[in-house]
């Protein structure tokens, strides 16, 4: 009985950690500078120009990353419905629990987003310079660093590039945000909790997570190869955003995970 109580306590800790991450992300969203994109007309607002130029590709890369376990090109994957899905927890010895493959999943996803969109951002800056000069503007653009950030309900590309734009008057822009609505932050945070549980207990049951998150997430697990591999899908029931990943499961459960 003491062993079961201890394991239940560990599960509670996993869930609490996930809740803390989500709450922290929510606070970051409210205090993150410049998180909302401008709604001004594209002819007068370079920030809106960059938003319109980059957002489709940004959404495309987020959709791809979300369907493949967090990576553009998964290192180790299971092919499911013709698509590679990365193993976020893996073992070649089915008598042992799997080992977490992405200890910092959210940071890894942010890096994948940045690297897969950086060329497009540079291309759009070049096109913006050309287009505004063609309209009679004088401009100076100092290109800065690009970073990707996930927050609750948002994915943001932030560039600290600086632009001075002059025609009838002079306007200065000290940063550029490209924002899309997507809840990948909370989905990936919950996925990280799931793989912690898989690595601790050998097998996890989505039922336990649904008891905590039933009003917010729909969580499913299928085993297409008879039990060795599990494909987890976490869906935000409000937005419809999903995150999918693979794990290998132990032949022996170590306790409350099933």
Can you give a write-up of this model?
The longest helix has 30 residues, at 2-31. Residues 1-42 have low confidence and may be disordered. A hairpin with a 2-residue loop joins β1 (77-80) and β2. Strands 1, 2, 3, 10, 11 and 12 form a 6-stranded mixed beta sheet that branches. This protein has one domain (2-248). α1 (2-31) packs antiparallel against α4 and α2 (46-67) packs antiparallel against α3 (105-134). 42% of the residues lie in helices and 26% in strands. It has helices at 2-31, 46-67, 105-134, 184-201, 206-213, and strands spanning 77-80, 83-90, 99-100, 138-142, 146-151, 154-159, 162-166, 170-173, 176-181, 217-222, 229-236, 242-248.
How do the strands and helices of this protein lay out in sequence?
Elements: H1 2-31, H2 46-67, E1 77-80, E2 83-90, E3 99-100, H3 105-134, E4 138-142, E5 146-151, E6 154-159, E7 162-166, E8 170-173, E9 176-181, H4 184-201, H5 206-213, E10 217-222, E11 229-236, E12 242-248
Helix pairs in contact: 1-4, 2-3
Termini separation comes to 17 Å
Number of strands: 12
Mean pLDDT: 84
Q: In DSSP terms, counting alpha (H) and pi (I) runs of 4 or more, how many helices?
A: 5
SSE pattern, N- to C-terminal = HHEEEHEEEEEEHHEEE
Structural class: alpha+beta
Main beta-sheet strand count, sense and barrel state? 6 strands, mixed
Instruction: Compute the CA-based radius of gyration.
Output: 22 Å
| Relative helix content | 40-55%
The fraction of residues assigned to DSSP E strands is: 25-35%
What number of domains? 1
């Amino acid at each position: 009985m003491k062993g079961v109580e201890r394991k239940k306590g560990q599960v509670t800790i996993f869930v609490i950690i996930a809740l803390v991450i989500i709450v922290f992300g929510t606070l970051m969203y409210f205090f993150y500078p410049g998180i909302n994109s401008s709604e001004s007309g594209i002819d007068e607002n370079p920030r809106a120009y960059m938003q319109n130029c980059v957002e489709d590709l940004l959404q495309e890369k987020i959709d791809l990353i979300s369907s493949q376990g967090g990576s553009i090109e998964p290192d180790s994957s299971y092919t499911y419905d013709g698509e590679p899905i990365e193993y976020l927890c893996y073992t070649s010895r089915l008598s042992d629990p799997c080992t977490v493959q992405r200890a910092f999943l959210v940071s890894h996803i942010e890096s994948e987003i940045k690297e897969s969109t950086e060329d497009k951002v540079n291309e759009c800056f070049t096109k913006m310079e050309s287009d505004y000069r063609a309209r009679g503007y004088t401009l100076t653009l100092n290109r800065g660093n690009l970073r990707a950030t996930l927050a609750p309900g948002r994915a943001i590309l932030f560039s600290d590039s600086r632009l001075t734009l002059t025609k009838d008057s002079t306007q200065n822009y000290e940063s550029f945000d490209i924002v899309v609505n997507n809840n990948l932050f909370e989905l990936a945070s919950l996925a990280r909790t799931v793989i912690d549980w898989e690595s601790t207990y050998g097998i996890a049951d989505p039922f336990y997570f649904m008891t905590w998150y039933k009003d917010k997430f729909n969580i499913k697990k299928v085993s297409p190869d008879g039990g060795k591999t599990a494909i987890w899908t976490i869906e935000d029931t409000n937005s419809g955003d999903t995150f999918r990943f693979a794990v290998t499961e132990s032949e022996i459960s170590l306790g409350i995970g099933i």
